Structure formats: C-alpha cells, structure tokens
Amino acid sequence: MALEIFQTSNFQVQYELTDYSQAELLLLRPRAQVLLGGCEPDYATMCGWFGITVGDGLGPANRVVITLTKNVRGASNTGFSTNNPQMSVNPNLGGSDDSVLGLFVDEMSEILMSFKGNWDPLNSGGEGLSRVAGELLHPNSAPNTKDNNVNAWLASDPTTDPTSAKADSVFRKDWVSANFTGGDLRAGGSVAGDQDSYSFGCAMLFIYYLKDQLGFTMDEIVQNGTGTLDGTYRSLTKTNRGGFSPFRRLIDFNFPTTNSPSLTDNPFPLPLLHTGTPLAQNEDGNGDFLAGDFDGDNIADMFFIKRKNTGTNTIEIHVLSGESNFQKFILQTGTALPQSEDQNGDFLLADFDHDGIPDLFFIKRRNTGTNQIEVHILSGKSKYQQFLVRAGTSLAQTEDLNGDFAIADFDRDGVPDLFFIKRRNTGANSIEVHVLTGKSNYQQFVVHTGTPLTQGEDRNGDFLVADFDRDGIPDLYFIKRRNTSTNQIEIHVLSGQSSYQQFAIHTPTVLAQSEDVNGSFQAADFDSDGRADLFFIKRRNTGTNSIEVHVLAVPV
Length: 556
What we know:
There is one protein chain. The chain is of the alpha+beta class. It is 20% helix and 31% strand. It is built from eight helices and 27 strands. The strands form seven sheets. Strands 1-2-3-5-4 form a five-stranded mixed β-sheet, with helices on one face. It has a four-stranded antiparallel β-sheet with strand order 8-27-26-25, with no helix packed on it. Strands 9-10-11-12 form a four-stranded antiparallel β-sheet, with no helix packed on it. The radius of gyration is 28 Å and the shape is elongated. It starts with a strand and ends with a strand.
C-alpha cells in the first residue's frame, strides 16, 4: 500500500495512491486539503450541537481516520471507537468541494451520535439528523430540485412503490412517533433502518420544522434527542402532546396532495393557515373575535361574540373549530347576557373554574352598579348560561377610557388574573401594566409597573397577553399596526419574567401595514407547540367575501 496521509488534532485524511490515476490525483490532492481544512471547524460546530467538548473521546491518540475512496457510494462510518473511528468518503472528483464536506458532516454527526448515545444513527431519526447536519453546514450540498431527500415521504404514495419498505404502509406515515429500524421491501429483499427514503425524509422535514417553524436551535434539538423525534418535540415544547399531528396538519395545508412536492429539503417556515370561514363579511360590524380551545383538542378555536343584530336578543357565541380550519361550527348559542350589554364592555376568554373549557369574561366598563370596573364570568361548561363570578374590582369605572383589558394567569396559581394595560393618563408616561389576581376575585393587585413602551405608542397598536417564551409567565405583545419602521405590522414582546421591562423579540410580520384597517388580532396556540401564534382576523376587504383567519407563527 502507498498511503498519502494528512493530519489535524482530531482527524487523519488519507487515500491509497495506487487507486487513482495521475489525472485523478491532480483533483484528489486539493480535495483532500479542502477536507482537511474543513473537518475541524465543522467538528467544533457539531460538538456545540451535541454539548460535547471539542476533542472529548478523540485527540491525537484517537483520530478519526477518513479514507477517500472510490469504492464507497457516498460515505460510511463504523461509529465511535477508542481505536481510531473509521470513515470512508467518496471524493466525488467530478463534483463540488461542498458535496464532500457535506458527506463528512453526515458521517461525523453519526459518530457523535454513537459517542453521545441520545440518537441512533442506524434508524430513520438518526439518518434524518445526519442529513440535516450536512445541509446546514454546507448548504450547497443540499439538493434544490424536486429530486431531493424529502419528496418521497412528502409527495409519493409508498403503497404504489415496489421499492418502498412494507412498513411504509400509508401516505405520509407517522415516522415521528416511531423510527424505522429496517425491514422488508415490497419487491423483495430488505432495507436498513437508515436507508429508507420515506422514513428519513419525514425525519428531515420534522427536524427542519423544529428548527425553522418552531424556532428551536440545533443545540436544543440535538441535546434533547430521545428515543423518537416525538420525544424530542415533547421535551422542547414542554408539553405532553404529540408532535406529529400539528406537523402533519401544517404539511397538509401547504402541500395538500400527493402531487405537491417541495423544491428544497427545508420548506420552512410555512404559513399556518390562510382561509375564509362560514361567517359572512357583513358580520364584521356585529361583534368581536376571540381565540381559545373550546373542544379540548389543543387547537385554538375561533369565538365570534355576536353583540348586535342577534336572533336571541342576547349576546351570542358562535365557535368555529380550529381542527376543521375554521369551517365547522361546534357551538352556536345565546348567553345569559342581554344584547343591551353590548355598549357596556368587552369580552375575554380564560378557564376560570379549571374544567378545561374556556369561560367568557365580560369586563363591564360602563353603567356598572358598583361604580367600579366589573368582572362577570359565564361558565363554558354551562354553554355560557350560568355565571361563575359577578364582582366589582379595585379599578374605578373612570379608568374605562384609559386602557384595555386582557386575561392570563400571571402568578401561576391556576386562576386567570386580570391585566389592565393602561395606555393613557399614566403616572409613568409609559404604557403601564396593572394585574388584579383572580384568587382575590379581582380585588388585589399583584403588579403595578411602567414599561419601556412610551405612552405615545398608545395610538399605534394593540396589546395582547400570552406566553411567548414558554416559561409559564404571560408576556405582553404589542402589535404595532401604525407608524412602523418596516412598513409591516410588527410584533414587540415584553417578557413577563422581567416584569415587562425587557423585550423578548422585535420583529416585523408578513402583514403589510396597510392591513391595519382590515381586521383585529388575537394570540393563541394553533399549532400545539406551547407558544402563542398570531391570529389576524380579516374582517374587511377580504378576497373571499367572508371573515378570514390568517394564522402566523410568531418567529424567534
């Protein structure tokens, strides 16, 4: 043998001279140098993803030996070893440097999986991660046509493909809750767990979904590796809900048929939903819209609180199911509130009595019997026929003109608290947050504070309260609709953890500032990831002549 060898601290790149012609060596030697120069920085990046110290388990005494050989299709490795882990890489002499560096990352990530132990490189989940890793560090190695890694799962029916595994039993099978670990092919023979394009295509899409749709970093994704991608999702989102259902719903909305391929392995971020509804556009002037999970399926539903021109002469509730993409009503009912209360206050949703069904809060701001702002809560369980609470608060009725109300559990005692967002006539010359505790029946304050938002922002947008950063403390969303620097509707989120003193995000949305006059906003979790999404309820100038729902994932 006549090996030519080059070394770094953790790697040895080598090839057998007699395997190549002189013409090929003229291409191979610079290719080897590119690999030699790229392996250490790529390895360092991957160590960060895995939470491993650079050199841990490797070093001069245990270098990874990378053999450049034409005798392998793509690349392979033998896993981690204390006796020089082995990797074989095709030098792809007719291709690009990035193609070879991408193969190195694929294989090195699998060696790190076997070293760390929280991913299995021999199943579909591990194979998906290794291919994503290569594409992220060397984007030019990623296919950018329909002939890519994900379209087998995304756009092909495996039941009609004789080259698919028998385990690929349905179109878009759930390879998130389970891994493919190998099995028989329909045409005979078998396929290894890391070679089935349907299952590892699903895995790749789901990892990209975690990263670029839900906003998790590669460090977070890789270090939260468990037995399945679903376990990783649950660990990241801190929920006990499965990840495949919201992922599949998003995919089906954006790629609705078997003839809907993606031009890249990573199509994210994708819009969560754009749709008309059964509500005619002329309902715009008759009420307000709220978002909350009425039917307990972890998908926010849309509540139309009809306040005028009702058939029952009461305030009415009409709930469109989120699971149906807001096409089907799951409740249409009058309430115990007469229609004449329309002019007296506002409506909010939260679960006051812990039964899992949103209750309707009527914040009575005018014509109260107590001369205070009042809270009247109708039970969701009674389909909004029975009151749970009817009480004055510690806020004088004169505060009606000074701000808006929101509802969320600030003190994490399980009882929704009342937020008064004071926008005008504040003592601090800033937007203020005042929170009355639900436990005290809205008699005692738990927060009085100014914020970094100047009082001058009052006329520029609206305020919502929801948990952005998944820490269990409601954050304050300022939806800036006017006078934005980006000419887009903007989101500015103040962290509840900081008592609304520090911003968690400043970002424009895809909505043009001109949409300001066309609708209203809500924040609720539509995609079941534990973070509130932004609902734009388009009420005017719609293309469908109906009330429209546009759901945007809030970026990070």
